[in-house]
Every structure is written in structure tokens, then in C-alpha cells.
Amino acid sequence: MLSENRSAAQLCPGPAPFGSSRRELFRFGLSGVAGLTLPDLLRARDATAAGASPHGGRDTAVIVVWCHGGASHLETYDPKPDAPAEYRGPFPAIETSLSGLRYSELMPRQAKLAHRTALIRGVAHRGICHQQGLQTLMTGKEQLALKNKSEHPDCMCVIGQKRARPGDVLPANVGLPPLPYGGAAYLGPGHEAFSVGGNPNDPKFEVPNIALTDAARSRLGRRLGLLGSIDDGRRYFREDREIQARDQQYQSAVDLLTSGKARAAFDIAREPDTLRDRYGRTRWGQQLLLARRLVEAGVSAVTCSLFQVEGGVAGSWDDHAVNWDCFQASRERSPVFDQAVAALIEDLYDRGLNQRVLVVVTGEFGRTPKISQAVGRPGRDHWPSAMSILLAGGGFRMGQVVGATDARGEYVSERLLSPNDLLATMYYHLGIDPSQEFTDHTGRPVRILDRTEPIAELV
Question: What are the φ/ψ torsions at residue 200 (nearest 5 degrees)?
Fold first, then answer.
């Protein structure tokens, strides 16, 4: 397995970077008479909710903190200080607030909060490159072919489809920005995440197209009026349910553009300076703070894709030696990551949101426990056979570790779990029945998940 993953890693160019231009934020496309594209994105408003589980409720939510590229479990939540030198790396392990559990010394703030988290060390899969890893982990369907878009909807799009309601002002699924290589697949483009780019730490940060100038409001009114005239003409000849449904979607679009609630939810400048400092005045810190604002305002699913630390050597978490020195990257990344995640967990508890909001910290896989020296510097390659996933909140049983890896961190040695198990737990929290079926592009019924039971230790 080790040599197989190394071979794949050598062929992998690394995770695709996000575009530097974010003109596609909230693709509302107010550029046509009958061609408004926002209502297409708001078709999720017509979805009906799944039956609630004992855990589920309308106000439950999930925040996924995505370590884009795949974080090393040995440099975060599963250090192996007693392993041979070619495995353990240079960072000692430290005690946490949970007896017997140790983290890498790079995670001191999160170590103090271990009693408020649940660490999953037993998840493994077979997706050896970034696309396969993410698509397997976040759909619950094994994906072994290398495709930039998933054949199945990622879980955040499923949540958005199931939790959206007619009349909701805010979208159900927001990406800060969305998961790379994911997407709505056969659910259709109306269920893609609302994409928010840019740097929330920038004093000039704003989300365009959630407020209208007077001129834009006038243009929108004229266009909607003309569109209504066209639809009225069609109604003269026949009653059209599609027109009625589209009327609701257009109204949702207008509500979002004109609602003070939407503008307020995305206005991170409303947070006090002390709290913003607590998260860290960094892109990652302010992304997570914005995520908390959104779930507090009623958004059901928020993804924070953590891509690059400002000024750091690493472009992602893809720590191949051919890319950069993995330990230098860890030293630069970890303080920013540790502070932001710890602040999010503390903030949710302080606000009493820990029952209704579940935080999931993960990437597409772990990294090779054996350190590579491909170009004279250390690196860790792709390793889906072992990884660490951190959960916080959600009303689950915290203060525990589920599963374990062997002495070198190579393979799961206790309580082997699959991505399906993780997603079933997320859906359970949200009150979504994963035994429900969608219809794929071929007309074939596809269950959301093949197995529907959440991780027992957490429930």
C-alpha cells in the first residue's frame, strides 16, 4: 500500500489552486431579461425536509473545516513519538485535556480543548489522489477513477437540498469557498453551494450582489416586471406549474438581494475586535468566524476550505517533498490553524451553540507515516489508509477517541470506519434520513448512503 500511494503521489500535480479572481462570487447573473441565474441556484428552496431524527432539528447545522490537500495526522492529532526517526518527525507530542490523549506540540490550543471534542482515528478509504479522496470521503461512495467532478453529490450539497425551505432568505449551503472536486452532480446546478471567495480578513472584504444600489434595484424591478408580463401571457393560454415554481424562485432571489438579514449575516465587521483577534487576524481565522456567523443566522451547511497561509511556503496541505519542506510548512501553518479551530470551538460553546452546530475538521486523507526525501528535503505523501478527523459539538458525546492506528500510524488497528459512517453521523445530527433515494442522470435510484447508522460511540 505504501509503494502504491507513493507512485500515485509522484504523478499528482497537487490540488488545484482556487482562482485569484472571485468575480464569480454568488453567481447571481443579473444580466438578462429572462436569464436571471440566481433562481436556478435557489431551486433548493423547493426541497422538502427529511423526517427529523431524535438528534435533528430545523436549527441544526454543520461546519466543515477542510484542510485542502490532506493534513498529516502525525503532525496534528495522531503523533507517534515512539516510532523510528524516519516516521515520527521532529515535533514532540504533548498532553491534552483528555487523559491519555496526546497531540502534536503544534496544536497547543486545541490540546486544551480535547475534552470538548471527539477524535476519530479509525476512518480509512482507497481514494489515493485528491479528487478520489475528497469524493469518496464526502459522498460516502467509493470513487477510484480520477475525475475533477464527483459522480455523486457531496454531502454539503445534499444537506443544502434537504434543508432548504421556500421563503428562507439565506442559502442553506455556503462555501467559503466550497469543497474542491465536489458539487451537486445529479441534484443539478440549483443545489451547488453559494460560493464566497476573497479574504474575510481584508478590511475591504465584502460579498457582492447581496445588496442593491438604487439603480440596480430599479433595473431589477423593470426586468422582473417584463418577465412577469411574459409569464402572464403564457398563463393566458394555460396554467403552468413551472411558472408558479419559478415565481417562488425569483421571489427568493429578490428576498436575498434586498434582505437586511442576508447583508447582516455576511458582515463580519459587526464582530467585536476582541473576538476577531481571538480567531486570528488571518484568512483562516476570519473564515471560521464568518462560518459561525452564518450558522447562527440560519445557514445549515458551511464549508471553510483552508488553502494557503499568507506568506507561507506551502500552497496547500499537500506536503510532498517535491512541493516544499513538509516540516517547515507545518511550522508556518499550525499556529494559524490551531488558533482558528480552537477559537471556533470555544465560541460555539460560549454561545450555547454546541448542541445544534457540529464542527468537522478533516481533509481528503492523511499523509505517509514514513518520511520521504525525494529532492533532499522531507515530505509526506498521500495516505488514505489512516487519517484523523476531529468533531466538536453537535450534541454528541465529546471527550473521547474512536479508533486507533498502529505504532507507526500506518493502518487502523482498532475500530475501522468508513466515510459512510462519518456522513451517516452528520446526517443523523441534521435529521436527514440517509436511506432516501435520489435519481441519477440515467434515471436510476441511488440511496444517499448505503449504510445509515451513525457512529455508535458518539450517540
Answer: -60, -15
Q: Residue 421: helix, strand or coil by DSSP?
A: helix
Cα(329)–Cα(317) distance, integer angstroms: 8
Question: In 10 A of CB 66, how many CB atoms?
Answer: 28
Does residue 93 contact residue 79 with C-beta atoms inside 8 Å?
yes
Residue 284, phi then psi, degrees to nearest 5? -65, -45
At residue 165, the pLDDT reads 82
Question: Which of 121, 144, 140, 122 shows the shortest CA–CA distance to 131?
Answer: 144
Task: In whole angstroms, give the CA distance from residue 70 to residue 66.
Answer: 9
Q: Before 177, cis peptide (omega within 30)? A: yes
Side-chain-facing half-sphere of 280: CA atoms under 13 Å: 22
Torsional class of 181: left (φ above 0), alpha (ψ -120 to 50), beta (otherwise):
left
Contact 202, 270 (CB under 8 A): no
Distance CA 21, CA 38 (A): 20
pLDDT tens, 67-124? 999 999 999 999 999 999 999 999 999 999 999 999 999 999 999 999 999 999 999 9
Question: In angstroms, rounded to a whole number, what is the distance separating the alpha carbons of residues 292 and 62?
Answer: 10
Query: Could you state, in chain order, the average pLDDT of each consecutive group of 10 residues for the chain (459 residues)?
Result: 42 58 35 37 37 65 98 98 97 98 98 98 97 98 95 97 87 95 95 94 87 52 58 51 48 60 92 98 98 97 96 96 98 98 98 97 98 95 98 98 98 98 98 97 96 97
Q: Give domain limits for the chain.
A: 2-12+23-447
DSSP state of 179: P
> CA 94, 95, 96, 101 torsion: positive or negative?
positive
The pLDDT value recorded for residue 53 is 41
Give the other-Cβ count within 10 Å of 222's Cβ.
11
**Burial level of 75, CB count in 10 A (0-12/13-18/19+)?**
buried
First vs last Cα of the chain: how many Å apart?
33
Cβ burial of 133 (10 Å; 0-12, 13-18, 19+) is buried
Reading the block at residue 411, the C-alpha cell is: 493502518
**Cβ neighbours of 209 (radius 10 Å):** 16
CATH class of segment(s) 2-12+23-447: alpha beta
Strand-pair partners of 304: 65
C-alpha dist (Å) from residue 415 to 133, 320, 404, 405:
20, 29, 7, 9
CA distance 153 to 52: 21
Nearest to 257 by CA among 287, 218, 305, 229: 218
